[in-house]
Write a structure and sequence with these properties.
globular, 601 residues, Glucose Oxidase, domain 1
């Protein structure tokens, strides 16, 4: 199938925009690769330190003829998505030995959960944790003892941080190994109703806690289609997972078999063999465009609008919001997974999942089939799904048709003809809106602004009964330079109640929402941010703001912003408590959100 000219045009634009930076990157990776297997250049003393505790593998490591894998793990046992990784290092080492190689845990990286820190001061460290993860993984790989890396990470900032590091060490092959989603618990729509009842005071904390615990109940990722599961989709679309690996539940025979197969594949694509596949070559323009296509076709997390530019920059590739917007305009929305629908990712997987979706998109010419992947050249094998037959892992043709068109539809009969994201630009700056869950009659909201500078103030106004008419709620000074750009998802139940009462409401912020952002129109990631003197800092209560996802605009109406002075509030409270003292240099150095809000890249 010939590539759709709209997808080709975006790819060509990215390639042209990135020409010089990509070439510099590839030259650097070539020089690193030409140095040969790295352990050959280590002194005997260097190697003795590296192998001292490797019982049973010392001879193989010292001889240097067998490939050695570096394991980068985000394991901790307080986060459900990462708890399954506890047993992975030993599984990986055993699988490597069976395949004639070795593996060592090179290092660990932090993994924090936005679900735990939602609405709390710790959320202000969340986005910056992506850069910490990249730095920590870089330290781990700097020991220079590895022929390839395997990456154990799932959630919001973990996978993007790991990709930044994998691209920086792009002369090494990298295989990402997922843990899978938890089994289905309390349906997401029921949980949302309970949250709204709590917001209105109709139920107490005991009932709320019971619902939350019934929803988040076991090991694995949360089952809604938030950032964690969007990350897993992305790794498959970009060719860094084995085919069909993303949504297999933890602690199952198939999950274990896929982990073993990923290890074998990582050993098989090092420079010591005949199928060298360094990460820097896989992470090219085609891979990132394929990832953008997957983001739009699934209605994925808005957090990836921040992460993908930073990830791409690490590989010498420059993405812009216009690339997201143009691909969204070309790609149909094929999935309805909560918060865009009632199903969870387990239901999506059962309906045909990523294999079916990728096949449809390839047939429609909306993906680059010729992209390189860890599994081989081309994406055709990603149509297949893994199965255990008599205890042996095989890949077979996936579903030829959707098994449930309420959840997953063909590209020729989508839920909507365009993807779930719109770029917004106007006199209030640039931002994005996730439209896939927002009813079309709410894609345009024009109403007086009510200005807030933190989430608690919005909730206090709601509890005081102050929202009685159509309102654009503006929460400013929430950008990376102001306070680390926390998610404001904690406001979703409150704003949803107002919407359900018949009011026309929207949110405008230089902060984030998340993959869990729902049915309330939200113009997010507004840049320049208010703390940098952006237009949001010049808004006043009562200004008429128009949020227009149809025209792709975001404006204050009838106001000359140039005649106003930007407010400069006291943000000193953001600089201390719950570790925020340690991140002042990050706040001072953070980039613009339109380009990924990066610190180290």
């Amino acid at each position: 199938m010939t590539i759709d000219p709209r997808i080709e045009a975006v790819t060509d634009r990215i390639r042209a925009r990135s020409k010089d930076s990509r070439q510099r990157y590839l030259d650097q990776m070539t020089r690193a690769s030409e140095a040969g297997p790295v352990r050959a250049h280590l002194s005997c003393g260097n190697q003795a330190h590296a192998y001292a505790a490797t019982e049973g593998d010392k001879d193989a490591l010292a001889k240097g003829r067998a490939p050695n894998l570096g394991i980068i793990t985000a394991y901790n046992d307080m986060l459900s998505a990462h708890q399954p990784f506890e047993t992975y290092p030993n599984q990986i080492k055993e699988a490597a030995r069976r395949a004639g190689g070795t593996a060592q845990v090179a290092g660990g990286v932090p993994a924090m959960c936005d679900g735990v820190t939602q609405g709390q001061p710790g959320m202000e460290l969340s986005l910056f944790s992506r850069d910490v993860i990249a730095l920590a993984a870089g330290v781990a790989l700097s020991h220079n003892c590895f022929d390839a890396a395997v990456w154990l990470g799932v959630c919001d900032k973990i996978v993007p941080g790991m990709i930044i590091a994998a691209a920086t060490f792009g002369h090494l092959p990298s295989v990402f190994i997922p843990a899978g989603p938890m089994t289905s618990g309390l349906p997401n729509d029921e949980k949302a109703k309970v949250r709204q009842k709590f917001a209105t005071g109709d139920i107490g904390r005991e009932e709320l806690m019971a619902a939350e615990m019934a929803s988040y109940h076991g090991p694995g990722t949360c089952t809604f289609y938030g950032t964690a599961n969007t990350n897993q989709m992305l790794m498959e679309f970009m060719g860094l997972h084995l085919p069909g690996a993303s949504f297999v539940n933890p602690n199952t025979p198939l999950r274990d078999a896929l982990t073993g197969a990923a290890v074998e594949r990582a050993l098989g694509i090092t420079a010591l063999g005949n199928d060298f596949r360094p990460a820097g070559e896989i992470l090219d323009e085609r891979a990132f465009v394929n990832g953008l296509v997957g983001l739009m076709a699934t209605g994925g997390s808005t957090n990836l609008v921040l992460h993908l530019p930073a990830m791409a920059r690490a590989a010498g590739i420059a993405l812009d919001l216009e690339d997201f917007a143009d691909i969204s305009a070309a790609v149909p929305l094929m999935a309805k997974v909560y918060p865009n629908g009632l199903a969870d990712v387990n239901h999506f997987h059962a309906a045909g999942g990523l294999g079916y979706m990728m096949g449809e998109l390839l047939d429609a010419g909306l993906m680059h089939e010729d992209a390189r992947t860890v599994a081989g050249d081309g994406l055709a094998r990603y149509r297949q799904e893994p199965k255990l037959r008599d205890g042996v892992l095989v890949w077979e043709d996936g579903a030829g048709a959707s098994q449930n068109e309420k959840i997953l539809r063909p590209a020729t009969n989508p839920f909507q003809p365009t993807g779930g994201l719109r770029q917004l630009a106007g006199n209030l700056g640039r931002g994005v809106m996730k439209t896939s869950a927002v009813a079309t009659e709410r894609h345009v909201i024009e109403a007086p602004a009510r200005i807030f500078e933190d989430q608690p103030s919005v909730k206090a106004a709601f509890q005081a009964g102050e929202f009685t008419s159509d309102t654009v709620v503006v929460v400013r000074f929430q950008g990376p330079r102001a306070n680390g750009m926390p998610e404001l998802h904690n406001l979703t139940p409150t704003l949803a109640v107002l919407q359900d009462r018949g009011l026309r409401v929207a949110l405008v912020t230089d902060g984030r929402m998340s993959g869990a952002s729902g049915k309330v129109p939200a113009a997010i990631h507004i840049s320049p941010e208010a703390a940098q003197g952006g237009p949001l800092a010049k808004l006043r209560d009562g200004d008429i703001v128009r949020v227009d996802a149809v025209a792709g605009t975001l404006d204050v109406v009838g106001v000359d912003l140039d005649s106003r002075t930007a407010l400069t509030p006291d943000l000193s409270a953001n600089t201390y408590g719950i570790g925020r003292e340690l991140f002042e240099v990050f706040r001072q150095s953070a980039g613009d959100s339109a380009h990924g809000a990066g610190v180290v890249i």
